[in-house]
């Protein structure tokens, strides 16, 4: 399942040169993953209330190819890979039209909120994100 989320570049996203600050791509990717989960029927606050589980970023691997600038309208993609027992890998890209600006691979872990110990992804979440 591939998902796309639109992001407009604002002043706060840019550095002194008017180019998107590299770390802000991680924020854009986070927003897109949250909206992807929401579209799949997974509300993260409800997941925590119901199960005591939360998602954490365990690893990132990013590659930057071309700059985004003020007022650009970006498309952020979310492409999950098959889920493991307690984590999943999501491939994401930032595009301006057909131009690939940045891409990354993000490993998301499922942990118990109370002590951050890894936990199995709930079957309902796996079903929702693989539908």
Commentary on this structure:
A five-stranded antiparallel sheet has the order 1-3-4-5-2. A hairpin with a 2-residue loop joins strand 4 and strand 5. The model has no long low-confidence stretch (mean pLDDT 95). The chain has helices spanning 24-39, 44-51, 123-130, and strands spanning 3-8, 53-64, 73-80, 87-96, 99-112. It has 131 residues and is α+β, with helices and mostly antiparallel strands.
Quickly describe the structure.
This protein has 131 residues and is an alpha+beta fold. The chain contains three helices and five strands. The longest helix is centred in the N-terminal third of the chain and has 16 residues, at 24-39.
Mean pLDDT: 95
Oligomerization status of the protein chains: single chain
Helix content: 10-25%
**Order of neighbouring strands in the sheet with most strands:** 1-3-4-5-2
Total strands: 5
Unreliable parts: none
Percentage of β-strand residues: 35-45%
- How far apart the termini lie comes to 7 Å
Q: Report the structural category.
A: alpha+beta
H-E order:
EHHEEEEH
Main sheet? Answer: 5 strands, antiparallel
Task: Please state the CA-atom Rg, rounded to the nearest Å.
Answer: 15 Å
Can you tell me the overall shape?
A: elongated
Given the structure, what is the number of helices? 3
